[in-house]
């Protein structure tokens, strides 16, 4: 049940299906999308640069808060089993990845998808500037989770050097790409519906 302030997400409007089976397909499908984007990665220290963030931002915006967060929770649960080629290539497999240096970022995916999805449900994904702001908020949430967890593995004075600075440019690119894709998708959808 949606509140009066919540709107339908892009996936709700683009593909007018409902039901538990459809929700499960979306949740698992977007978990797989995140896993696919995780393979675009390279290690620069204890935390890799990956395409996952882009997939997580889109997941939240396209699925909404609850399904987006559940999708990322599913992504982590499947990855915890040790399935190969699920998390970013290289590094520890399975549950070890969740309790290692990257664990905070991975756990943060759930919160990012929820927050971006919540903002999308309120129409923030329909204009470039508000979509960019929603993505920025999502990135900020990710860094809070990631950096707080990384402090257990890296000396405090090096935390920003290791866990933030190397990622800023790439994350800005992913943020802008996601912020352009969503309003463009809504525009195309309106044109096809007319």
Explain what the structure shows.
The structure is a single chain. This protein is mainly alpha-helical and 194 residues long. The protein has one domain: Orthogonal Bundle (Arp2/3 complex 21 kDa subunit ARPC3). Helices cover 66% and strands 3% of the residues. A hairpin with a 4-residue loop joins strand 1 and strand 2. A two-stranded antiparallel sheet has the order 1-2. It is built from 9 helices and 2 strands. Helix 2 packs antiparallel against helix 3 and helix 2 packs across helix 4.
What topology emerges from the helices and strands here?
Blueprint: H1 10-14, H2 20-38, E1 41-43, E2 48-50, H3 52-63, H4 65-80, H5 95-99, H6 103-120, H7 128-150, H8 159-163, H9 168-193
Antiparallel strand pairs: 1-2
Helix pairs in contact: 2-3, 2-4, 3-4, 3-6, 3-9, 4-6, 6-7, 7-9
Looking at the structure, the CATH topology is: Arp2/3 complex 21 kDa subunit ARPC3
Which assembly state applies to the chains in this document?
single chain
**Structural class, from helix and strand content?**
mainly alpha
Helical stretch count? Answer: 9
Could you say how many structural domains there are in total?
Answer: 1
> Regarding CATH, which class?
Mainly Alpha
N/C terminus separation: 28 Å
C-alpha Rg, in Å? Answer: 17 Å
CATH architecture: Orthogonal Bundle
Count of DSSP strands = 2
Give the SSE string. Answer: HHEEHHHHHHH
Mass-distribution shape: globular
Instruction: Give the strand order, joined by hyphens, for the main sheet.
Output: 1-2
Which stretches are poorly predicted, pLDDT < 50 over at least 5 residues? none
Strand content: under 5%
Into which percent range does the helicity of residues fall?
Answer: 55-70%
**Whole-number average pLDDT?**
90
Largest sheet: 2 strands, antiparallel
């Amino acid at each position: 049940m949606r509140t009066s302030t919540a709107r339908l997400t892009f996936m709700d409007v683009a593909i007018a299906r409902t039901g538990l089976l459809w929700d499960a397909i979306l949740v698992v499908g977007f978990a797989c999308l995140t896993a696919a984007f995780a393979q675009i990665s390279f290690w620069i220290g204890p935390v890799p640069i990956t395409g996952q963030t882009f997939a997580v931002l889109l997941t939240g915006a396209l699925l909404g808060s609850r399904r987006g967060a559940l999708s990322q929770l599913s992504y982590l649960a499947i990855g915890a089993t040790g399935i190969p080629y699920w998390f970013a290539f290289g590094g520890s497999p399975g549950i070890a990845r969740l309790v290692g240096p990257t664990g905070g970022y991975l756990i943060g995916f759930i919160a990012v998808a929820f927050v971006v999805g919540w903002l999308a449900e309120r129409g923030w994904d329909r204009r470039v500037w508000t979509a960019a702001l929603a993505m920025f908020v999502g990135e900020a949430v990710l860094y809070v989770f990631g950096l707080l967890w990384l402090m257990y593995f890296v000396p405090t004075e090096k935390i920003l050097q290791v866990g933030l600075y190397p990622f800023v440019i790439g994350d800005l690119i992913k943020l802008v790409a996601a912020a352009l894709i969503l309003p463009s998708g809504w525009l195309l959808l309106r044109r096809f519906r007319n």
